[in-house]
Amino acid sequence: MALVLIKSDERPDPARAGGPQSASGPQDVLPRSFYQRPTLLVAQALLGKTLVHGDLRVRIVETEAYLGPDDLASHAAGWRRTPRNEVMYGPAGHAYVYFIYGMYFCLNVVTEDEGFPTAVLIRAGDPGARGPGVLCRELGLTREHNGLDLTAGGSLRIEAGPPPREKVVEAPRVGVDYAADWAAKPLRFYLDGNPWVSRKLRGRQPDVR
DNA sequence: CATTCGATCGAC
DNA sequence: TCGATCGAATGA
After folding, report:
1. Of A91-100, A131-140, A196-205, minimum mean pLDDT range
2. Is the terminal CB of chain A with fewer CB neighbours within 10 Å at N or C?
3. What share of chain A is helix, strand, coil (3-state, %, to 5)?
4. Confidence of residue A198 (pLDDT cuts 50, 70, 90)
């Protein structure tokens, strides 16, 4: 039995560690300690959380984990360090937004310790954002948002919330066939049955190969 | 400087 | 299955 499907939110969630505040608002913003944990765990813990940009809000329903220098599908594979992926080497809780295929942007959240390049790609949001490119388009996210601190209480942030009721499904990542044995690893996670999860992935059996 | 390719998407 | 579309990465 794999060590996945951890109910990470059951453990001490810093955002809920009884502060003097209550109700909703900036105090629900996920703190850096949420992100500065194992990427695999953060990828699953983000499911069900609310991604906010200004007045726009979506529920995160699909993510992918990029595990670091050994991960051949990662932009930081082999410790590659370029202007583009620089924020992956920075502190957790910052946005890594990059331009892809000449027309889309993709949003990641940086995880783990500063200096170790890992991140989680946000792939879909409920409602209206089926796929990472569409998600950024719908939320108005571009290169301007690259590097922003998601924990600073600004217009771009992720808010806490209860664990999702849905079952968390694991599956291989998308578009990384070039990554040899890393392509088949179950590093994608999504909420079972959610209509906004990427199309190809929904109808299909998770572990087929 | 030239060339290749991509953590995508939606139409066919 | 394929074309759109162009910046980032790589190599000459």
Report:
1. A196-205
2. N
3. 25, 25, 50
4. confident
Q: Identify the bridge partners of residue A108 per DSSP, sorted by sequence position.
A: A96, A121
A20-72 confidence digits (pLDDT tens)? 444 555 569 999 999 999 999 999 999 999 999 999 999 999 999 999 999 99
A179 touches strand B (CB under 7 A): no
Give pLDDT tens digits for A98-110: 999 999 999 999 9
In DSSP notation, A132-187 reads HHHHHHHHT--GGGTT-BTTS-SSEEEE--PPPSSPEEEEPPSS-GGGGGGSSS--
Collect all residues with Cβ–Cβ distance below 8 Å to A126 and sequence separation of at least 6.
Answer: A58, A59, A61, A194, A195, A196
As a rounded value in angstroms, the CA-to-C1' distance for A104 and B10 is 13
In angstroms, the CA of A101 and the C1' of C7 are apart by: 8
**H or E segment at A57?**
strand A56-66
User: With a 7 Å cutoff on the CB, does A116 touch strand B?
Assistant: no
**Tokens 């202007």 -> residue:** A83
What residue ranges do the domains of chain A occupy? 28-201
